[in-house]
Amino acid sequence: MNSKLYSLLHRLSDGEFHSGEVLGEVAGVSRAAVWKQLQQLQELGVGVVSQRGKGYVIPGGLSLLEARKISAHLQPDVSSRLVGLDILPEVDSTNKFVLERTSMATGHGLVCVAERQKAGRGRRGRTWVSPFGANIYLSVGWSFSQGVAALEGLSLAVGVAVSRALEGLGFLGVQLKWPNDLLVEEKKLGGILLELTGDASGDCSVVTGVGLNVKMPSVMAAHIDQPWADLASLENVRAQSEPEYLDRNIIIAAILNELISMLSAFEGSGFEPYRLEWERLNAHGGRRVSLHTPSKSIEGVVMGVTHAGGLRLMVDGEEKVFLGGELSLRAVSACDQVGEL
Ligand code: BTN
Fold first, then answer.
1. In the prediction, which pLDDT does 107 show?
2. I need a surface site. Which of 37, 92, 297, 334 has the fewest CB within 10 A?
3. Within 10 Å of residue 212's Cβ, how many Cβ atoms?
4. 109 CA distance to ligand 1 centroid (A)?
């Protein structure tokens, strides 16, 4: 996104009418060029309306990401652990952005959030649908020194941290699907993607990526290949009466407060302190499921998770443990019809 377009967007984000002349001055372009620039916003899914004699408006305004606002809601000990907070109008992938800096040894404590991802990465090579100004796309780089073995269960602990943040803000009813999807009534609210770099037996870095649907435009939802939810559609919201309850800056700060505290403690504590909370949030505890690996499918009843974050499944009367990676969990309906959750 060019800087002219971004400055137009900033001015229009207040939800008020602005004349073509004023917008032209703001962006340093002619009135005709303003119209052309605003066309690009429509293509990004941002609804701009023009009215003769009044100018242009984004009805209802647009709450943009702001470093100042995110920082103002961070706990002091969390702020002090961050080396940077990059807020980008658009990026291919926030994970990729942080990963590149992590390999340059500047990624420990680096946070990146973006208004839009052009190539958002999901698990198993999927694309993460990332429209402009609608949702949260957040990545955090963190370095560890005891190798990947000490990081067992980390992705599940991230799920607990994000759920805690949402619960703290009054968004109730969020559950976790092993290993780390965020669900609401079995529909996907968010996803977590951990990417590792470095020495598997020593110094390594992890980029934790969190994608959270806040207010998904329905036109973009057509690209999502599974049942989904967003925070705006949650009914069980204690904080709904507060005008800023969907402000992404505040939600991002709440997630960072939980996430950075967890990452700081994880190498010492491991997953165990988060396990019971994970079990409480488990969307499939005690339920019959089908677990798919690239080579086979296994049916069983979910018994919970181990201290290392493995899935405990009762299969034909015998408990088996399945470790993370590229497994997926499918619910089995009464007629044995399987469908991804
Ligand atoms: C999943 O498939 O469930 C994981 C989705 C993870 C998406 C987030 S959005 C921020 C970060 N950057 C990416 O490219 N992916 C993750």
1. 74
2. 334
3. 23
4. 18
